[in-house]
Specification:
0% strand
Length: 76
Amino acid sequence: MEPASLARNAWMDSAHMVLVLVAFCGGAAAAWSARRCYGLPEFRQALRTVVGAALGGTVPGGWKRMVQALELAPVQ
């Protein structure tokens, strides 16, 4: 189904990006809390958090939107 106007198309694109960002944060939070639930060692916590965030954002948004979400991350 095609959007009726450019404004609606832009709104739908923005809403989809917000969904990807929420899933990105949810994946990171799930990976962070899994350490305590499953008794995993802490030395690889950062790696698990990054992988959880990447999977959380890729599933609903696809790889293209995940890369766009990573551009918003505060990386130095």
